[in-house]
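Reminder to self: tokens first, then the designed residues, so the page reads top to bottom the way the pipeline ran.
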């Protein structure tokens, strides 16, 4: 789904870039997160990287070379593959042993500096060290930085090898910046919006995003910069696929129960609840679905996103997108409105190459009307429990 979104907006990004007058595309650098890196199906792998939006743009620009931190199949981590559709989609790793970086010995700086999992502030502060992988020191918390950034210090300098510093050292003529998604995404994935825990505070984001764009502009005064904003993370299939209710075999509508009480039509149940629903959670006689939050001083993820929580996340996205627009205007950078594009995809789909892309989660099985739905899971539970 993530790769489809990136492909769906590619045409718009090409138009936004090409429309800029007198733009020199000869040296293109992309800054961002997983959406920029070509991370898909749970891993970083060569096939998806070669179809990342920066790589496609580079081909559109006619560039002879566009260096990316390519990873051999099956990727890091091994990308997921579809094993079965019935009774619900089953995804498994496509290999047992992770792939290895292909061009880690490249002596220059990569053109694609998209780092899966990165937040805005990470582009300013975090570095990587590819030698850790070579020595067998695999640190899950830093592995993507180690693969993409590689240099604790930029070679032949004493400058920290952050994404921002590497982008500047590359002396690009054209830069795309698509960052900020992970500053709010965790709030949706954990179903708990908490300022400073799952969402970056507005004041912090403002300072970080200002530093990012202002530094790029001051250090690369001749480069053309195009930025993209943050799509709605509450409209992704992870949040919207499951309903807050089930139907009994008699056709009665039964609202699921959560720790804080029954759900309503305004609430969401994330896909993380799939295994719990299969066990009957949220139905009479079974444990309630976890709301998540701060429990005994510890953060606990949930699977229920209340309507008010979704509204808080959407409000934060509007605030951050307002900052993106403001800071981009300050340096004369056009903004690609990914948020509006994605909302249109959610509402109407997107035709690309004769194929209609949508934001719907994969469904299938022997019964297309019931497979992969909470109603189907509840029906199975009711039958086995009665």
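Designed residues (386 positions):
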């Amino acid at each position: 789904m993530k790769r489809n979104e990136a492909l769906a907006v590619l045409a718009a990004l090409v138009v936004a870039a090409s429309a800029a007058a007198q733009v020199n595309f000869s040296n293109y650098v992309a800054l961002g997160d997983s959406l920029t890196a070509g991370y898909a199906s749970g891993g970083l792998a060569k096939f998806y990287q070669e179809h990342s939006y920066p790589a496609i743009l580079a081909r559109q620009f006619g560039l002879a070379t566009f260096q990316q931190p390519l990873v051999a199949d099956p990727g890091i981590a091994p990308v997921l593959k579809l094993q079965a559709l019935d009774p619900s989609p089953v995804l498994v790793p496509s290999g047992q042993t992770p792939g290895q970086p292909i061009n880690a010995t490249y002596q220059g700086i990569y053109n694609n500096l998209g780092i899966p999992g990165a937040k805005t502030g990470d582009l300013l502060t975090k570095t990587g060290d590819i030698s850790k992988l070579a020595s067998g020191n695999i640190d899950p918390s830093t592995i993507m930085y180690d693969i993409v950034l590689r240099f604790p210090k930029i070679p032949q300098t004493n400058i920290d090898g952050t994404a921002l510093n590497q982008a500047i050292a590359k002396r690009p003529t054209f830069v795309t910046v698509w960052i900020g998604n992970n500053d709010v995404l965790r709030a949706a994935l954990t179903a708990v919006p908490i300022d400073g825990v799952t969402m970056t505070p507005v004041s912090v984001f403002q300072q970080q995003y200002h530093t990012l764009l202002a530094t790029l502009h001051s250090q690369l005064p001749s480069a053309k910069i195009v930025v993209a904003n943050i799509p709605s993370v509450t409209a992704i299939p992870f949040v919207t696929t499951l309903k807050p209710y089930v139907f009994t075999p008699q056709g009665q509508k039964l609202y699921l129960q959560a720790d804080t009480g029954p759900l309503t039509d305004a609430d969401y149940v994330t896909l993380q609840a799939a295994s719990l629903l299969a066990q009957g959670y949220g139905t009479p006689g079974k444990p309630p679905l976890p709301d998540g939050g701060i429990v005994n001083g510890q953060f606990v993820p949930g699977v229920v996103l209340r309507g008010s929580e979704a509204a808080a996340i959407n409000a934060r996205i509007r605030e951050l997108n307002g900052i993106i627009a403001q800071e981009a205007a300050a340096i004369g950078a056009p903004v690609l409105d990914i948020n509006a594009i994605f909302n249109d995809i959610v509402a109407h789909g997107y035709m690309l190459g004769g194929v209609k892309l949508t934001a719907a989660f994969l469904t299938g099985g022997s019964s297309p009307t019931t497979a992969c739905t909470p109603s189907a899971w509840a029906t199975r539970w009711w039958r086995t429990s009665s």
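Residues 2-236+310-357 form a domain with the Rossmann fold fold (CATH 3.40.50.1110).
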